[in-house]
Specification:
The complex is a heterodimer of chains A (about 325) and B (about 450).
Chain A: H1 2-17, H2 20-31, H3 33-59, E1 62-64, E2 70-72, H4 76-82, H5 85-116, H6 123-129, H7 132-135, H8 138-148, H9 155-162, H10 174-202, H11 206-214, H12 219-230, H13 232-247, H14 251-256, H15 272-281, H16 286-312
Antiparallel strand pairs in A: 1-2
Helix pairs in contact in A: 3-16, 5-10, 5-13, 8-10, 10-13, 13-16, 15-16
Chain B: H1 2-5, H2 10-22, E1 46-52, H3 62-71, E2 75-81, H4 86-100, E3 107-111, H5 112-119, H6 142-147, E4 157-162, E5 167-170, H7 171-176, H8 183-189, H9 193-206, E6 211-213, H10 217-230, H11 249-263, H12 275-283, E7 286-290, H13 295-303, E8 311-314, E9 325-329, H14 337-347, H15 350-360, E10 363-364, H16 367-371, H17 373-376, H18 388-396, H19 408-424, H20 429-444
Parallel strand pairs in B: 1-2, 1-3, 6-7
Antiparallel strand pairs in B: 3-9, 4-9, 4-10, 5-7, 5-8
Helix pairs in contact in B: 4-19, 10-11, 19-20
The chains are: A mainly alpha (about 325), B alpha/beta (about 450).
Chain lengths: ~325, ~450
Amino acid sequence: MSLDTLPRATRNSHRRDRPPGRRWRSRVDVKAMPYALVSPYFILFAAFGLFPLAFTLYYSLYDYDLAGTVEWAGLDNYSALLGDDDFWRAVVNTVGMFILATVPQMILALFLANALNKRFRLRLAIRMSVLLPLVTSVVAVAVVFTQLYARDWGLVNWILSLFGVDPYNWRAERIPSWIAIATMVDWRWTGYNAIIFLAGMQTIPRDLYEAASIDGASRRRQFWQVTLPMLRPTMIFVVLNSTIGGLTLFSEPMTFYNGNPDGGSQGQFQTVAMFVYKEAFREFDYGYASAAAWLLFLLILIGAAINFLFVRRIGGTK
Amino acid sequence: MMISKRRGSLTAASVLAAAALTVASCGSGSTPEASAPASSAAAEPITIRVQTFGGGSNFGYEKAVAKWNAEHKDIQIKHENLTDQFEQQYWPQMIQWLQAGNGAGDVVGIDEGGMGLAKAHPEWWADLKEYGLESRKADFPAWKWETGVTADGKVFGLGTDIGGMSICYRSDLFKKAGLPTERDKVSALWPTWDEFMKVGQQFQSKVKDTKWADGTNTLYQVVLYQEAAKNGNVAYFDAQNTLIVDKNPAVKTAFDFAQKMTQQGLTAKLRNFTDEWAAGTQKGAFATLGCPSWMLGVVSGNAGDGGAGKWDVASVPGGGGNWGGSWVAVPKQTKHPKEAAMVADYLTQAETEASIFSDFGNMPSNTKAQQDPAVQGAKNEFFNDAPIGEIFAKSAASLQPVFLGVKHAQVKNAVESVIQGMDDGSVAHDKAWQQLIDDAVKAAG
């Protein structure tokens, strides 16, 4: 603050000497420039966020065939969706895969972060390395996992066979297909979340731990009673992020079935995002797909709200 | 390549929807090569992009394109095979490009399943009559020509290949099972489909790790087209474009056959044109599959050089039929319609189609090529020097086209999914037929 006063005084004295044109320009500079500088985000958001939202909302009220006609339909698309078994199957798949992927992922990321938060050799290198899976492209990950989970010559089935387990047809059976896709998601995102948890952990003041250890709290006790409650804001962020990512899951299950939005012969692992894609870009039912996209939006809001309430309770609210 | 461009978020899907419809200059999810290079400098050659689909050697254009490019310095062909799958990937993407007015190649391949819709949209296509190609009419059977002409008389598609039927089989595995390996004797094993299944059980009792057939689908298609020829040459739609899945006996017969195959455990449960199916071709997961002429190139492409001599071709139980066959068309959006028409003309000439047949097996639809002694006497090296000319060319003249409706591609995918589901166990056998009808109605709706 005190540093500011001196330059400002000199600046003001300069301003008095300036011709009016320059004064006007400097006013523009002060008033408009900040808006101009932040505008790229808002322009992009308007073009790629707001506009599509409004566009899909508008066309969700129409019977809109890409290779055909556009007719007013009112809420018909929504009522048809609510009675569409395929849509509900996609919802169940999405939520199922979300839970299968997110719960182990959060727990794993938390313990990984805790481990990385200690002192050890090559700490930076190891911390960086947990981010590596994130750098690989989703499709590359999915292609490799698709091979691992191949029915006839896949590594996973081979390992299972060593324990006398009959080979799974990972693309034909519902729960196994969910597990396969959940492992893909976890492979990619666990490290990312661990790093965010780690960053959160490092903002926790050391004196809290010191006080706890003076009070005789064990390392484990410190984790549960100090680290976890202090991490809550980070956790809310991570969980909301995972909710949005998990409920819009698309690339992994798409690649798992040769890039088809069917998600298995009978939609065993078709997610809502794939359902939207299929309706829009294969059946060319844009209105129907738009309505499904809006229901997905609602689903994410509900999911986020539930998770928010749930996470707020973690570690107790004292 | 489609997948990598599309992140699965709500926003991405909506952006794509918006992009496809409003921003004509960036056709949705368009691949980098999708924007035609503008030939600003006069000296620069014109590039004609030819887009096709299919597994293995697909349209078999590799050598034909190299030949053209060597002879025409001013017009260069760039051939892109976009994907293995027509109904699920290629055609939906193509429709988006055609509708958006941007993104499609200068010459595009269309499978028979898409021709109904293509014909219903004359505004998508350049009229090849304007480039003097009406003269090609005499080169093709009437039905092949007529399918490429719209209701208002616009010539948009030139015939590439036709179906014809055969069974591809692994002669090395037949030997292992103590079956005859020589193709005439193999053909004699199965005059009917029931006998085909009986031989299959015999085979599987001897060779443990290999299933008799690849899946339900290739053979289902073969039977469907055979039966369609007996039922007025219609499949899922009648000539008025009404859905007749539940009424056409051809569909039920083919379905019943597929069900029997899977109930008897004769399939490797692989869906054709998937990666696992391609791997299965190479690794001997199955001993037979339904092979229209164009499938030969797919099999040899998937099996790789290691498969040469192991595969052979026999005749199909229960007589001929026509599965598949394609056309090439010139989209209206092309910047070089004249040159594109020249390329389409070249790709469907008798000499081109004849050489594709001898190299890859795609049976020419060009009647002059069919009558070419080189075609009639052609042998396929990969398939143990099978006389494919004799097997396919002789029946070519008598092939009947099956009428496919505007929504055939969607219904076909729905029906195949149920049959595949029955095979992989996700659809109960007793409920499969009803579900097939329900899903077909939904897909046609």
